[in-house]
């Protein structure tokens, strides 16, 4: 971890998440980023709950990860569009996290994801801290993730190309992860795969970034699970209604058969009476 010497700035105590800015003054670049983050969080929630029955994990969506003390402080932070940190409390001192401060907590994210809104050069920038000058205020984003923040996995998602690149930290550098036979990228420590799913979410048809389990089953959002459950309930209701209708039809057929049998008996009795009236014993016929 790289932290500027506090004495250089006249600082005697390192700030925590409540003392650091939680915004750099910019806004989300397009309408897709916010629902994409929600989709990733909603669909992975039940999986993380099973991994962490004690609920000790944190998810950041467009939140700062502070790795270096600078002036202004924002220059010492990266802001992944989505990241997950295992084995940390979801809140600090009963308060929502304003940011994730590495010099406070030390545990790096397991995965950080960037959504590309430009040409992807920013997300792949390898410029090291040693190359920073007065004209350039921050090192490259890829370098910071690989060399300082060090999430085990770093993903770059490009909606315009309907693609995602996933990197795995191996011996202090990122190696590109190969897609499996399903075209997904395994994140074995989470028991999931990351990939592109083309479909409708939040009333928009796009190639969305999504999770699958390691058997290739799509991890569903709460709304998707509810829709499937409603459809299952409706199918069950329809099945029960069909069974009720079948039983009703069977009852009506049985009643009709009974009526026809009774009518046949009555015809036979009338015929027998007519024959007896003519002196003929119907039982001898």
UniProtKB/TrEMBL annotation:
Skewed-composition ranges (Polar residues): 1-16
InterPro entries: Uma2 (IPR008538)
Residue intervals of the Putative restriction endonuclease domain: 31-197
Signal peptide: none
Region (Disordered): 1-23, 231-262
TM stretches of this protein: none
One Pfam assignment: Uma2
Top-level division of the source organism's lineage: Bacteria
Name under which the protein is recorded: Putative restriction endonuclease domain-containing protein
Organism in which the protein naturally occurs: Limnospira platensis NIES-46
């Amino acid at each position: 971890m790289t932290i500027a010497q506090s004495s250089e700035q006249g600082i005697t105590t390192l700030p925590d998440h409540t003392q650091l800015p939680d915004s750099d003054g910019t806004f989300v670049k397009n309408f897709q980023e916010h629902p994409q983050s929600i989709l990733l969080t909603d669909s992975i929630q039940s999986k993380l709950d099973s991994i962490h029955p004690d609920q000790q994990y944190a998810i950041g969506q467009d939140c700062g990860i502070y790795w270096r003390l600078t002036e202004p402080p924002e220059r010492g932070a990266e802001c992944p569009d989505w990241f997950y940190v295992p084995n940390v409390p979801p809140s600090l001192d009963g308060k929502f996290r304003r940011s994730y401060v590495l010099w406070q907590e030390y545990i790096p994210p397991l995965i950080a994801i960037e959504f590309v809104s430009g040409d992807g050069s920013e997300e792949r920038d390898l410029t090291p801290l040693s190359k920073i000058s007065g004209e350039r205020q921050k090192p490259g984003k890829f370098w910071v993730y690989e060399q300082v923040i060090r999430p085990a996995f770093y993903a770059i998602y490009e909606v315009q190309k309907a693609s995602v690149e996933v990197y795995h930290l191996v011996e202090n550098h990122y190696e590109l992860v190969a897609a499996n036979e399903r075209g997904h990228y395994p994140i074995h420590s989470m028991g999931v795969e990351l990939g592109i799913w083309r479909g409708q979410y939040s009333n928009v048809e796009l190639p969305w970034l999504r999770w699958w389990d390691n058997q290739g089953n799509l991890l569903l959002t709460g709304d998707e699970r509810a829709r499937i459950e409603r459809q299952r309930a409706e199918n069950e209701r329809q099945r029960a209604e069909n069974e009720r209708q079948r039983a009703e039809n069977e009852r009506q057929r049985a009643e009709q058969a009974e009526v026809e049998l009774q009518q046949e008996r009555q015809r036979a009795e009338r015929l027998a009476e007519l024959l007896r009236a003519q002196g003929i014993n119907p039982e001898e016929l």
